[in-house]
From TrEMBL:
Homology family: Belongs to the carbohydrate kinase PfkB family.
Name of the protein: Adenosine kinase
GO molecular function terms attached to this record: kinase activity
All residue ranges annotated as the Carbohydrate kinase PfkB domain in the record: 55-321
Listed Pfam families: PfkB
Record flagged with keyword rRNA-binding: no
Length: 336
């Protein structure tokens, strides 16, 4: 156990995916044949075919992955962060690494040469109802393993944050479990996101392996929390989540969110906005909360930061806000 002050507020571990974002109609989405509103794992040929069908649409690329979005948000807010992931020695991998560095995030990617392969990509399709549908080819990210961890950075981080998407690969799941053990051995805290309804639906036992004897902080949306607890009753889901984590946050879309600070459940009011694109809303919420609780904000204020930032995010396209815009949200919340 370390008594040293943390060098990092949060060490993140997750998939490295270059997001290819595209706005399209519900009819076009149906023609492509992807399940609306969830994340589906695709092989490279299927994803390339989907991309080919969008050649008449405008697309934008940005470095993504659920935990990466959260880590970048924390960095933009002023936090010290590290992101552990895996990219290949290709143009997308170079783009991803440089984007992380430009965002002020330390990463294992700069400490060694990448391996041959194909960097993961996530096709993000946004329909006019602001829903986001994701088709992910993990590429070399599926090979993320314990060898990609940085034990020194984990031991130097107040929180280690893991995305639930890592459960879909045995090596990446084991890497997450190892990272959790390293953090706890160093006297640090562990946070985790359930990430997606389909992860809970198809990989619930693996998520429970990652949670182990409990995490310090768990993030979920309402549908994920209900499914995790195998219930339709939200109050029951809250009680069940208390058995998985010392503290947690559950987002409820237009109904706001709740935070459990270890003693009481706090209701965080929603910020009504006209949503254009909900991609990354949960990631931004987690970034705001994690920044808040590692920078002296109370739980209610941290929840308000996460809620306000995620509400602002969904009024535009993409999973990331400008740094100045996010800093303005922080000043607004802290100043109130």
């Amino acid at each position: 156990m370390t008594n040293h002050p943390p060098k990092y507020n949060v060490y993140g571990l997750g998939n490295a995916l270059v997001d290819i974002e595209c706005a399209l109609s519900v009819e076009t989405l149906a023609a492509i044949g992807m399940d609306k509103g969830v994340m589906t794992l695709l092989d490279e040929a299927v994803q390339n075919n989907a991309i080919a069908q969008l050649n008449s649409h405008q697309t934008k690329r940005i470095c993504g992955g659920s935990a990466a979005n959260t880590i970048i948000a924390i960095s933009q807010l002023g936090g010290k962060t590290f992101y552990g992931c895996k990219v290949a020695d290709d143009e997308y991998g170079q783009f991803y690494t440089q984007d992380l560095v430009d965002c002020g995030v330390d990463t294992n990617l700069t400490s060694h040469d990448p391996e041959p392969g194909i960097t993961g990509k996530c096709l993000v399709l946004i329909t006019p109802d602001a829903d986001r549908t994701m088709g992910t080819f993990l590429g070399i990210s599926s090979q993320l393993s314990e060898a990609d961890l940085n034990p020194e950075a984990i031991a130097a981080a107040e929180y280690t944050y893991m995305e639930g998407f890592l459960v879909s690969g045995e090596n990446s799941k084991q890497a997450a479990i190892k990272a959790s053990h390293l953090a706890k051995a160093a006297g640090r805290k562990v946070a985790m996101s359930l990430s997606d309804y389909n992860m809970v639906k198809f990989f619930r036992p693996g998520l429970l392996e990652m949670i182990g004897d409990g995490v310090d902080m768990l993030f979920a949306n309402e549908s994920e929390a209900l499914l995790m607890a195998d219930t339709d009753d939200f109050a029951t889901a809250i009680e069940h989540t208390k058995t998985l984590a010392k503290t947690f946050a559950i987002t409820r879309g237009p109904a706001g969110s709740i935070l459990f600070d270890g003693e009481q459940v706090l209701e965080i009011a929603p910020h009504p906005v006209t949503a254009i694109d909900t991609l990354g809303a949960g990631d931004m919420y987690a970034g705001g909360v994690l920044y808040g609780i590692t920078h002296g904000l109370g739980w209610a204020q941290a929840g308000k930061l996460g809620s306000t930032a995620s509400a602002q995010l969904v009024t535009g396209y993409g999973a990331r806000m400008g740094t100045d815009e996010l800093q303005a949200v922080l000043k607004q919340v802290v100043g109130e």
